[in-house]
Structures are given as C-alpha cells and as structure tokens.
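Consider the tokenized backbone below.
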C-alpha cells in the first residue's frame, strides 16, 4: 500500500506522500502524512499546484466575451478612427493590471503581459476596425452609427483579444516570457499593420513570433467550430487600382467627332481579363476585378472621361509582377490606338499571408487539443481574400488560422450589411490564442523544433 495509489469509491483516492504530484481528476482526495489522514478539495489542490485549464477558463468567460463583442459592435470605427474602441480596450486592460500602450500605429493599443520568469516573447495580433457599410441586421446590438458596421468579425476578434489578456493576466505569476497583445487599427485597406510595425512594436518588445486568427465564413471548407490552417499561403496579396480614360466628348449621334472613353474602357476591361487567361501561368491563382465604372450623364451624350476602379489578387510574386506591369501597359496601348489619354494609379497593397510551416505544426497540436483533432482541417484551398496580418508574418514567423463561425451556404457573407457570426465560438478563439501564447512563452515551441 505504501508504493501504489489505491482508488476508493466514490472517486476518492489515497496518495502516498511521494506521489502527491500525481493528481487525478476526482471529487476529493485523501492523503497520509506522518500517519495522519487529510482531506483536500480539488479546488484547494488546484490552487496549491497552480493547475491551469484555458479551455475551461475561456468557456467560463463566454458571457463576458459576448458582452465585449456586442459593446464594440454597437460602436464601430472605420480605418484609424477607432478611438472609442481603443479607450474601451485600454480601460479593460488597465483594470486587469495589464501594462498598456496607447497610440501605437496612430490609434492602436498594446497590452503587455510579463511573466515572472524570463522566456521568449510572442505577439497576439487582433484587428479592431469596422467597415463603411450601413447595417441591415435587426438584432438588439446594431451599430449606433449610420454607414458604419462591424461586417467582418473584427468585433469578435477584439473580444477574443480581451479574453486572452484576461486569462493570461490571471496566471502571470506562473508565466515564463512575455505576451504582447496588439490591437491593430486600419486593417480594412488602410495598411494599419504596417503603421503599427513601423511604430516599432515588434522591435521595442523583441517579438519573436506572432499568432492571429479570423472568425466567420471565409472558407467553405469549415463548419461551425472547425479550425482551418495551412502550411504556407492562406490569403492572397492585393493591390487596388484607379484608372481614368480621357477622351473627347460630344453628341451621341455624332460619335465620329468624339474620342469615346466608354467604348475604349470596355475594350480595356476585356483586354485586362486576357492577362489572367493568357499571361499568368494557369497553376498560379490570380484575380482581376473591375468593381466600379463611372462615366456619362444621359443617353445621348458621349462623356469626356470614364473612371475605373478595381483590385488584383495573387499568391505568387511572379504573377503579381505581371499584373502590376501589364495593367498599365495594356491600358496605355489601347488608349494610344484610339487617340485617348489616360491616368493610372496602383496602391502599395498587402503582401500574401504566408504561414510558417514549423509554427503551424506547433499550433496544430494546440488546436487539436482544444477543438478536437477531427475539427482541425488543413485547408485544400487558400482564399483570395487579403489580410494585413501578412506584414507581421513577413517580419516574424507565426500562423494565421481561420475559425468557422457560421454556414457559408446560408449566412450573409463578410462585408455585407447583414453579416453576423455565431458567438458560441468566441471561447474557442480565445482559448486558441491564449494557449498558443502561453506554450510559446513557456518555450514549448523551441522544445519541439
């Protein structure tokens, strides 16, 4: 009896003094010390040995996650104009005793959870801006501000980031290393990630890796609660363009006296699509979309100018080089042929989101432990959507995961006035970020590589 653990119904055990670290999930524990029998409740044992269970702890704060998400949903800010949200985030962090930086990358917020022992530093990146969209939902937490809406799930990301800060702050005395939680403005086309990085957040805190995620229905391969990963590209690069075709206007009945920018624009748009089908290698995914055409005022007037606006998406640098070069070349050639002038502008855009294979392998094990191995899917296809987290993943290794939060067949898509997501997954997103940050800071990533 002195060398074994004896099970005593109902779910009670006696522990030899030298075996007291082998705690089994039970209702209560009896143990002997110097001939006397002692009783300990599980809660006392957990406190004594500092057991942590981020899965359960995240579930325990699910109601708060929903509360934080809905507060942010009611008060969306677009681009860098997220001061109200930033104030809310900073107030929560400061309430929990988390060291806080304000005004990072113009209006970003950074929470710093420092462990009691030295170790690596990892960043958790969270975007927090909304979109210039009029909300069409009818639930009781719709946007208070006309023409602004959280239509991509960033309000959920904020809640997950706050949840991560809350859980880590409870255990900071047991944490090795440091976790930097970066609440980033301006993701939706504003290059906010670049602004935050240029402000020195990675260098200042010596961030060695990054983890981030996106909830919603971005991948048709994922159902509710499933985690999508890739060991390489997961989202496309993007450049947006503007173009002006400048002709000579006139009467619609006398087109020979004009240089018709409408007809010329139509030829340009058609020719641009041939770049995709005839100049980009077919195994390199690429998209060219003209999303806006403006020109003319009535049926019988040929306008002087037509305005075009669009986007290109790609994963491979060579495909991007072709598109960025040939867009203007094709336009210039057609305009010269038909005696028109043109202007063309291409923005700097975002690079592709490329996950680090080794870090993703590390993350995959964590996701399997939290969501179940059957709910972690290596995506067959990346998405042509783009994301500013790409700038972080260019700077340090890490991974960007997708978390299924709806039904792609029936739910309104991202960037739609009726977009919403299933809030029941907020605890899982929080647990994924928290556990990954904790294990990295504890040196588990370094141990497995």
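A designed sequence for it:
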């Amino acid at each position: 009896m002195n060398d074994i653990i004896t099970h005593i119904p109902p779910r009670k055990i006696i522990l030899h003094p030298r075996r007291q670290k082998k705690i089994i999930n039970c209702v209560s524990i009896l143990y002997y010390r110097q001939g006397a029998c002692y009783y300990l409740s599980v809660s006392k044992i957990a406190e004594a040995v500092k057991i942590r269970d981020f899965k359960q702890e995240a579930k325990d704060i699910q109601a708060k996650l929903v509360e934080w998400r809905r507060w942010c949903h009611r008060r969306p800010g677009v681009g860098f104009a997220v001061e109200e949200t930033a104030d809310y985030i900073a107030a929560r962090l400061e309430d929990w005793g988390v060291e806080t930086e304000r005004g990072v990358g113009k209006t970003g917020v950074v929470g710093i959870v420092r462990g009691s022992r030295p170790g690596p530093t990892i960043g958790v990146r969270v975007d927090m801006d909304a979109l210039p969209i009029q909300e069409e939902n009818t639930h009781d937490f719709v946007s208070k501000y006309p023409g602004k809406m959280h239509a991509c799930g960033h309000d959920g990301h904020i809640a997950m980031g706050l949840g991560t800060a809350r859980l880590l702050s409870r255990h900071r005395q047991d944490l090795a290393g440091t976790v930097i939680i970066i609440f980033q403005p301006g993701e939706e086309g504003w290059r906010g990630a670049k602004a935050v990085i240029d402000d020195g957040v990675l260098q200042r805190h010596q961030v060695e890796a990054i983890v981030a995620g996106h909830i919603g229905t971005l991948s048709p391969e994922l159902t509710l609660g499933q985690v999508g990963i890739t060991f390489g590209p997961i989202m496309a690069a993007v450049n947006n363009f503007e173009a002006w075709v400048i002709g000579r206007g006139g009467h619609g009945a006398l087109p020979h006296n004009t240089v018709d920018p409408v007809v010329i624009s139509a030829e340009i748009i058609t020719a641009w699509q041939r770049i995709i089908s005839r100049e980009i290698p077919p195994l390199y995914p690429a998209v060219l979309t003209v999303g806006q055409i403006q020109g003319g005022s009535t049926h019988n007037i040929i306008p002087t100018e037509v305005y075009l606006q669009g986007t290109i998406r790609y994963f491979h640098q060579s495909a991007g080089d072709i598109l960025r070069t040939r867009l203007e070349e094709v336009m210039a050639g057609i305009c010269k042929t038909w005696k028109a002038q043109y202007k063309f502008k291409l923005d700097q855009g975002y690079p592709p989101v490329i996950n680090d294979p080794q870090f993703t392998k590390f993350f995959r094990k964590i996701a399997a432990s939290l969501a179940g191995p059957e709910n972690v899917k290596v995506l067959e296809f990346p998405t042509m959507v783009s994301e500013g987290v790409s700038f972080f993943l260019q700077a340090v290794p890490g991974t960007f995961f997708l978390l299924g939060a709806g039904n792609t067949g029936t739910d309104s898509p991202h960037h739609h006035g009726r977009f919403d997501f299933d809030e029941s997954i907020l605890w899982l997103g929080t647990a994924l970020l928290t556990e990954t940050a904790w294990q990295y800071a504890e040196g588990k990533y370094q141990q497995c590589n």
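The chain has three domains: 6-49, 54-236+354-447, 238-346.
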